[in-house]
Amino acid sequence: MTGVDRIKALIPHRYPILLVDRVSEVDPGRTLVAHKAVTVAEPCYAHLPEDAPAQAYAYPVSLLLESWAQSAVILACWLKPNPDVLAGKVELAAGLRGAELLAPVYPGVVLEHRVQVLREVDEAAVVAGSTLVDGETVLRVAQFTVALRDSSVLGVGV
Amino acid sequence: MRGWPVRVTEDAGDRIRSVVEIAANDPVFEGHYPGFPILPGLYLVQYVDSTVRAVRCVPGLRMVAVERVRFLRPVRPGGAVSVEIGVRDEEADGFRCSATVSTGTEAVCEMRLRYRQEAA
Fold this sequence. Notes:
Chain A is an alpha+beta fold. Chain A has three helices and six strands; from the N terminus they run αββαββββα. β3 (89-101) of chain A pairs antiparallel with β3 (61-71) of chain B.
């Protein structure tokens, strides 16, 4: 079992936007299974009004996709850890194709992200996969491209 | 994260525009990434979604697909991004959106989303 300590040694994402809790299976360079618990204590629910309807508690699509994408980055970085952007590369999402949102996700569930590498080219990885909740698929991703760029090229800070 | 502070500036039915302030002190930048703050690209998808919801607040309307996103350049803290959305393929059970997100005159992201009207 791979917990947050090991995840932090692999990727540079940190609180409040580190959205993977553990990795349960990995075949480096090929596949990975990771998990993230969604709870109402997350910052995205902090400012909802008292009378917010049930649908307002659907986990934001951006965070669902970001959590899945971080699982992809963990797989891409498994053999080449990149925990500090300032010392290494910066991970940038380059493109996404064919993401189907099959059902909304609510607090109280554990997301099971499945990722597989389609191809790796130079400093980019193209991955596909899905997310399940209690065995039901809630997200399918046909193609996600993540690129590693030199942080020195992009310029540090602003 | 402090919600999705989208301000709609134009709502002409099939053409919608909004502006989103990218607060330099948004807590997300502490973690993305330490010492190198850039906006998580997928937040831009949320800005488009929040804009669509702001003008079409229909119960049961749900984003069901992110058909395509191209991230062209990273977004830094501070300043604002403008969102321009074209609605098309409008039918009783849903529609598609093409959106461009820009800083100033520079496009940072293009995307195509699909929405479906489900039972509320």
